[in-house]
Design a protein that fits this description.
This protein is α/β, with parallel strands linked by helices and 410 residues long. Helices cover 41% and strands 24% of the residues. The radius of gyration is 26 Å and the shape is globular.
C-alpha cells in the first residue's frame, strides 16, 4: 500500500493520518469544513489513548490543554445542591485528562499536518473501486486514485453513504438529543462543572479552558424524526424542552437560541455488520458511534492505531481491515451495549428514577469523603520510614528477649 485518502480531519481522521504516514504511507486528508471545528463538550483521554498520544509525541500538549475541573456539582431544578463529588471519581482518574474536544482535535491535526497533506473545504462526491485502488471524485471537481479510502467523517458519514448505503440502514437512535453552545463571558467557577436535572432533561455548565460550554441532554420523542440540518428546528426543540427548568438554564437556552453556531444532534449509535467493503473502511463514529456516553474520542484514537498497525502487518487490505475490525470490535461492542443503561442513570426519565440517581451521587460523595480522610491520615513518607524503623527495632528487641528466655522468635 502506497497511498491512503482519509475523509474527515477530526480526532479519528487526524490520528490515523499520523499513524499511517509514520509507517511510510502517502496520506491525504480531506475535510468538508472550511477550517477546524470548535463545537462539542470536553472529552476524556485515558488509558491506551494516552499511550497513542505519547507515541505521537503530543501527550504533553494534551495534558497542558486539560481543563481544571476538580468538582462535579449536581443540582435540583431550583438550584439546590444534591451532591458534590471529586471529578476523578467519574472520569479517567490519574491516568487520563479531560480536554476540550476542539483542542484535542487541533493537537492531533497539528501532528498529522507534519506528515500528511490536509485539504479543507472539500469532500468526496463519488467513489469507484478498481482492482488495484479506489477512484475518487471530489466536490471541488478534482479527482484522484488511492490504494485505500478511510471514512473517518463522523455520524453522518459521506463515505459510508457512498460505499455502504443510506444512513438510516445503520443508525439506531435511543430517543435523546444533545446540544451544546459556547458561552463567552458567562460567570463560572473554573474548577467546577455543574449539572442540573429534572425528569427527562439534563443541563450541564462546564468551564472548559476559558470559554464555558452549556450542554443540553434530554429525552424526546422528536428524536426519531428530526432533521439534523434544520437549525431553526433545533433551537425550538431546546427552548420547549427546558421551558420549566430553573437555576441558570433560561440564560443558556437564550444563548442557544441566539448563537450563530451551535451543535445539536440525536444520540445515535451506528451498527454495521462489517466496517469495510473492498478497499474502503470506516473508522470512529462513522463505523461504530458509541454515542454520547461511550468514550468515543479515546476509542477513535485507539482504533486509528489498530487500523494502521493492521495495514502495516498485512499486504492485502482485506486481511488488514478484517484484523482491525476483529480487534477493535472487542472494545467497542461492550460500550455500545451499556449506552442505554448509562443514559438512564445520567438523565433519568422519571422523578423516582432521578431520586435513585441522586442517592447514588450522595453515596459517591460520601465514599469520596472517606477516601480523602483516609489519605490525609496516612503518614508522610519520612514518617512512614521512622515508623518502619521503630517497628523493626521493636521486633529485634522482642526476638532477643525471647531467645534469652529460651523461647522462639515469632
Amino acid at each position: 500500500m502506497r497511498s491512503a485518502l482519509v475523509c474527515g480531519a477530526g480526532i479519528a481522521g487526524a490520528t490515523v493520518a499520523w499513524q499511517l504516514a509514520a509507517r511510510g504511507v502517502h496520506v491525504t486528508v480531506v475535510e468538508k469544513a472550511a477550517g477546524q471545528r470548535s463545537s462539542g463538550n470536553p472529552v476524556d483521554v485515558h488509558g491506551e489513548a494516552m499511550l497513542v498520544a505519547r507515541q505521537m509525541a503530543v501527550d504533553e500538549r494534551v495534558r497542558d490543554a486539560a481543563t481544571g475541573v476538580r468538582r462535579l456539582v449536581a443540582l435540583d431544578p431550583s438550584g439546590r445542591r444534591v451532591a458534590t463529588i471529586a471529578a476523578d471519581s467519574v472520569t479517567g482518574g490519574a491516568d487520563g485528562v479531560e480536554v476540550p474536544r476542539a483542542d484535542l482535535a487541533g493537537i492531533l491535526l497539528d501532528a498529522a499536518k507534519q506528515r500528511a497533506n490536509v485539504v479543507f473545504d472539500d469532500s468526496i462526491a463519488r467513489l469507484e473501486e478498481h482492482p488495484g485502488g479506489v477512484g475518487v471524485e471530489f466536490e471541488s471537481g478534482s479527482s484522484g486514485r488511492f490504494d485505500i479510502v478511510i471514512g473517518a467523517d463522523g455520524q453522518h458519514s459521506r463515505v459510508r453513504a457512498l460505499a455502504f448505503g443510506p444512513e438510516g440502514n445503520f443508525s439506531h437512535r435511543i430517543g435523546m438529543f444533545v446540544g451544546t453552545v459556547s458561552a463567552p463571558g458567562a460567570t463560572v467557577d473554573p474548577e467546577e462543572m455543574t449539572m442540573v436535572n429534572a425528569p427527562g432533561v439534563s443541563f450541564s455548565l462546564h468551564p472548559s479552558t476559558g470559554v464555558p460550554i452549556g450542554a443540553f441532554i434530554f429525552h424526546s420523542a422528536l428524536a426519531e424524526s428530526f432533521d439534523h440540518r434544520d437549525t431553526a428546528q433545533h433551537r425550538r426543540i431546546v427552548a420547549d424542552a427546558y421551558s420549566d427548568v430553573g437555576w441558570r438554564v433560561p440564560e443558556f437556552v437564550e444563548r442557544f437560541v441566539d448563537a450563530p453556531e451551535v451543535y445539536f444532534d440525536t444520540v445515535t449509535q451506528m451498527r454495521l455488520d462489517a466496517w469495510h467493503r473492498g478497499r474502503i473502511v470506516l473508522l470512529g463514529d462513522s463505523a461504530s458511534s458509541v454515542s454520547l456516553f461511550g468514550d468515543g474520542s479515546s476509542l477513535a484514537m485507539i482504533g486509528a492505531r489498530t487500523l494502521a498497525e493492521a495495514l502495516a502487518d498485512h499486504a492485502d487490505p482485506a486481511d488488514a481491515f478484517a484484523e482491525y475490525e476483529r480487534r477493535h470490535r472487542m472494545l467497542v461492542m461492550p460500550k455500545q451495549k451499556r449506552v442505554r443503561t448509562t443514559a438512564s442513570q445520567l438523565v433519568p426519565k422519571t422523578a423516582a428514577g432521578l431520586g435513585v440517581r441522586n442517592l447514588a451521587l450522595r453515596g459517591i460523595q460520601a465514599y469520596s469523603g472517606i477516601r480523602r480522610r483516609v489519605h490525609r491520615s496516612r503518614p508522610a513518607p519520612h514518617d512512614a520510614r521512622r515508623l518502619d524503623a521503630a517497628s523493626q527495632n521493636q521486633d529485634e528487641s522482642g526476638d532477643s528477649s525471647a531467645r534469652a528466655a529460651g523461647g522462639h522468635p515469632r
